[in-house]
Specification:
single chain, alpha/beta, Rossmann fold, 2 domains, six-stranded mixed beta sheet, three-stranded antiparallel beta sheet, 8 helices, 9 strands
Length: 258
């Protein structure tokens, strides 16, 4: 069974200035254990598609299933974790308490919450930082804490909305390496929104190229680079070949911007 299956998905917003067509006839299947990136220009519907999968937006046409059920049912079953563009940590709570927040909502015992928080913080390289407040951590560390929070209840699916877009290139490279290692260890299914072609090629098993609004899928590019991907792989002919195909897909959709 596919983890995500969208068929003929569309979404139109009604505004005072008339309808805004955000998605048009999007069909996509994501298998268990895949790392799928969505790439395209600003406003093309990448985040909207992610939010539809997460039941944060309702489609106006087509169907979508997450683990065989509707997005609403998947949300109520807590089938996925969601990582936003900004860390969205509560400044008055320590990092450990931010990570345990969804577990508190679920009614998990205090001892179990602390044990899970410690495990997830260790997994994202933040062991020993649980008693810090968000303002005492760098931007990259805060984003890692938000990933730990999304993983706290051990969802099989992780939805990530351009989580590293605001970080500098050096920190972003480091977090890309850490995320790839985390995915390899956990074998979770990941859907990842990005504007960066190198980031998409480095992380993904497949890249979904989207057109300007209304968002359509113009190409799906396989990334057969294997599980071991040092940063140096970005200089290899195979990596550059995949990146070039993504660029061509963006140009074909009239969405590539220099």
């Amino acid at each position: 069974m596919a983890t995500i299956e969208a068929r003929g998905l569309s979404l139109t917003y009604r505004t005072e200035d008339g309808p805004v067509h955000a998605l048009s006839d999007v069909s996509l299947t994501v298998a268990s254990g895949e790392f799928v990136s969505l790439i395209g220009p600003s406003g093309c519907g990448k985040t909207t598609l992610l939010r539809v999968i997460a039941d944060l937006e309702k489609p106006t046409g087509g169907t979508v299933r997450v683990n065989g059920v509707t997005p609403e049912e998947a949300r109520l079953r807590r089938d996925y974790g969601y990582v936003f563009q900004a860390p969205a940590l509560l400044p008055w709570r320590r990092i450990e308490s931010n990570v345990t927040l969804p577990l508190e909502v679920m009614g998990v015992s205090r001892a179990e919450r602390r044990a899970r928080a410690q495990r997830q913080l260790e997994m994202v390289g933040l062991g020993g930082f649980g008693r810090k407040f968000p303002w005492q951590l760098s931007g990259g560390m805060q984003q890692r804490a938000s990933i730990a929070r999304a993983l706290a209840f051990d969802p099989a699916l992780l939805l990530m909305d351009e989580p590293f877009g605001a970080l500098d290139e050096i920190v972003r490279d480091h977090l890309n390496e850490q995320l790839l290692a985390l995915w390899a260890r956990t074998q979770k299914t990941v859907v990842f929104v990005t504007h960066s072609i190198p980031e998409a090629v480095f992380l993904s098993t497949r890249i979904v190229v989207m057109s300007p609004r209304p968002g359509r899928i113009t190409d799906v590019v396989p990334c057969d680079l294997g599980p071991q991907r040092p940063l140096e792989i970005r200089e290899t002919p195979e990596f550059l070949r995949i990146a070039q195909r993504v660029r061509e897909g963006l140009r074909a959709g009239h969405s590539y911007e220099v």
